[in-house]
Amino acid sequence: MPPWGWFGTFFLDSSRVYIGYRPTLMMSFLANVYFFGDSIISLRAVNIFLHTFNSLLVVCLIHLIQKSKKQSDFVSWVTGFLFLLHPIQTLGINFLWKRSSLLEATFLLIALILHLQKRETGYRPAKIFTQCLLLLLCVTTKESGVILPFLLGALDLSSSQRPDYFKQRSIIFLYSSLLLIVLGFIWFRTSYMPLYTSGSFSSDRRVLSPWNYFMNAFSVIPQYVGFWLFPRPLLMSDPLASPSFPWSGFVTTGFLILLSILLVIRLHWRLHRSPLMIFSIVVFWLGLTPVTSPFPLLFFLDQIRLYVPMIGLSCLIAISLDRAKTLIRFKAMVPLTLAVLIISYGVSSFFQSLRYKSPILIWKDVITEYPESGLAWEHLGVALDEMGEFTEAIEAFETAARVEPQNPEFMINALRSSVKANIPREKIQEKLNVILEKDLPIQQLSNVALLEIDLQEYEKAQKHLLEIIRILPHWDSAHLALAVLWEKIGNFELAQQAYLHTLTLAPSSQQAKDGLKRLGPAKK
Q1: Single pTM value for the model
Q2: How far apart, in whole angstroms, are the C-alpha atoms of residue 379 and residue 383?
Q3: Residue 373: is its pLDDT beyond 90?
Q4: Are 392 and 386 in contact (CB under 8 A)?
Q5: Where are the domains of the chain?
Q6: Banded model confidence at residue 364, pLDDT cuts 50, 70, 90
Q7: 208 sits in which H/E element
Q8: Cβ distance 367 to 361 under 8 Å?
Q9: In 3D, which of 168, 177, 47, 28 has the Cα closest to residue 111?
Q10: Is the model's pLDDT at 221 over the cut of 50?
Q11: Which of 140, 197, 408, 458 is 20 to 30 Å apart from 11, CA to CA?
């Protein structure tokens, strides 16, 4: 186990671009490496196990919600198979860091199943503690786990056998405890974390008014339904807009909107006869809602965020097929439709998984569907650079810079690849001077320093790095770059100290570990 001093950084999902505090997720990776090693096969095998286990939990949950055992058998198992085999789920399995969605879903499903089993008989203190623990595990795996108490409430409101809140004080105490944890976590996430870490939210977001944000998203809804049912090989959207109002109250606002819709459905629509359908709609909506907005529409095409929502969508498809069986003219088509869905999903998932072997193929797929994503062009450039395709890498980075000119990191990366491509130093320096004329964020100076190290401008690089460390002493990238600088100029003792300090700030930094191996005992 790492020393207590690492608690603030070791458990961060990222300490640079995205402020995410995910100790449960990080501990799962630590346990994975400890018991099974750090090979890609073992890490992916655990992800496959979690996804399969989640599918069984979905079957169990749907079975408990359904009143009729006959309906439950069909709807629950169809939902489980669709959730298991849908091509969108290949992202959560193959992108190892997406274990956050897998684990989050595990804790959510266990909590929902326990709630169905205990709400009628009443909650004892031990069971309330268990639900609070599951909520803590959810939010420390992925921030969107704050939806758990709202899912429990939706489950109660949509059920014909909901508990009597006035007679069961334990239920009131349960919800009060869960909401206090949610509010405490939101405060920690929005007020404490930005002060404690050097991370910040992405600066490449265009600020829109809430109305424009909603209308921009609403205008592309027609293409979403087809995508949910028949997704393209890979799509990870990177929405470039965020609404221009404080987001600390978004979860509450989103829940109030959802609660209003739910009450309308409950009181006025005939859907009150199908609590499972209501709950499926709620799971789909709340699962899509980012922590930062009650309007999730811009994120509907983002496979990264579709793991939990697929529970609701799979259930809605299963309910539709189940109801089609009651219609004589559609009854014979249901088995054929179900077989086609399961086989097509399984085949598509298999071939989609094969593409994850090549990062270049992955990011080319993303760019095909989302050419305006600077993030996708940047990652393609990184993959090409690692393969030694420097000319193509430069083109990818420069395209990213054209798509998002407000982000100087893309052009800096292009210049670093230019050094490797042996482009004349004068041209590189000329472009670097243009970048330095702009008011760069302090974090970008570490990338500038790395470029200056590549150009052997060691004094300029040292000046920039020391300035960063003075302002942001916990910025691990700056300490890593400084270690590289000391190693380049032959000061191996200072380089070793800088690498060690980088590991105290970012214990998972493979570059720092490789640097210490390169130095070795002989160079200490």
Answers
A1: 0.73
A2: 6
A3: no
A4: no
A5: 4-354, 358-426
A6: confident
A7: strand 206-208
A8: no
A9: 177
A10: yes
A11: 408
Task: Name the amino acid, one letter, at 434.
Answer: V
> 12-14 and 20-21: which strand pairing?
antiparallel
Reading the block at residue 189, the tokens are 């996430």
**Dihedral pair phi/psi, residue 242, rounded to 5°:** -140, 140
When computed from its CA atoms, the radius of gyration of the chain, rounded to whole angstroms, is 25
List phi, psi (to 5°) of 20.
-130, 125
The CATH homologous superfamily to which domain 358-426 belongs is: Tetratricopeptide repeat domain (1.25.40.10)
Amino acid at 465: L
Identity of the residue numbered 267: L
Name the residue among 400, 382, 352, 418 with its Cα closest to residue 91: 352
Task: Quote the CA–CA distance of 363 and 375 in Å, as a whole number.
Answer: 9
Q: Nearest CA to 445 among 409, 485, 414, 411?
A: 409
Alpha carbons within 13 A on the beta-carbon side of 147: 31
Tally of residues, the chain: 524
Residue whose structure tokens are 């014979």: 332
User: What is the rounded distance in angstroms from the CA atom of residue 110 to the CA atom of residue 108?
Assistant: 6
What is the distance between the alpha carbons of residues 148 and 111, in angstroms, rounded to a whole number? 8
Element at 21 (helix H, strand E)? strand 20-21
